[in-house]
Write the structure tokens for this entry.
Amino acid sequence: MWQPRNDVAFRALFGEPSRRHLLQALLNAVLQDRAPTVPPIDGLEIENPAVTPDHVSGKAVILDVVAKAEDGRRFNVEIQLWQQPGYRARMLFYLAKRFGAQLGAGDAYERLKPAILVAFQGFASDDLPNFHTVIDLRTRGAWRRWSADLELHVLQLPRLPAFPADSKLDLTEAQAWGLFLALDDERDRERLAMAHSYLDEAQEAWMRLSADERLREEARIREGNLAAFAAARSEEREEGLEHARKTLVLVLEARGFVASNRVRQRILRCADPNQLQRWTQVAATATSLGEVFGS
């Protein structure tokens, strides 16, 4: 479905230098949603405005928007519609990359500016109950902020309130921007923009982009390629799980253990490759099945 949350559309809407003011408004809404005293962004440069054919073909899985504020803060902004293996590790990798790439050989560490990753999710994570979660570096126990240099904002579109028919909804600016991305009905998006004037320019820009057939075709191509990529990854994962299950059974047999039907079913139903690996490692030296499976 052609919506601004489609990553091609999101990149076109917020990643073009001519519309950097929209990205700036979006980022300010996010940053001040959880910390109103954070200084607003006053001037923004988009550092990766070009979209290559590889992005559309699916070879680049995420269409991030990379930007730098006038005060030096670095931003990585993305939208991810479904959960993929390694998604959180990928976010941490790009957050650290934005931080570390600021320095060259011999540069002073004092020159480093904060790196901030903003991720809109089209899916909900069980361990994140709120629409907007901020993750940063804190001391364990006291939970005081240890450093403000690395910060990750996760905004989960499924955790937004439902948009009512009368448009009367008390929203923060971050929630309103989230609904702008999440709504399916174009009439609802127009009513949202009418109720929240700071969305007017974004709605006008979106309506112009919606009429761009070339962009819509690029989005259709990318969606098809990403679906194929996800299917291939799923097949690879299942093949890896099957190999891990067979390896565990072979180790158990080599050690002389006779697995009951209940144990075999437990192995077959396990979809966690790390758990299968742990069982295999323990089975190599265990003296009983109880040591392996905890029962």
About this structure: Residues 241-293 form one domain. Residues 6 and 219 are 7 Å apart (CA to CA). The first helix runs from residue 7 to 14.
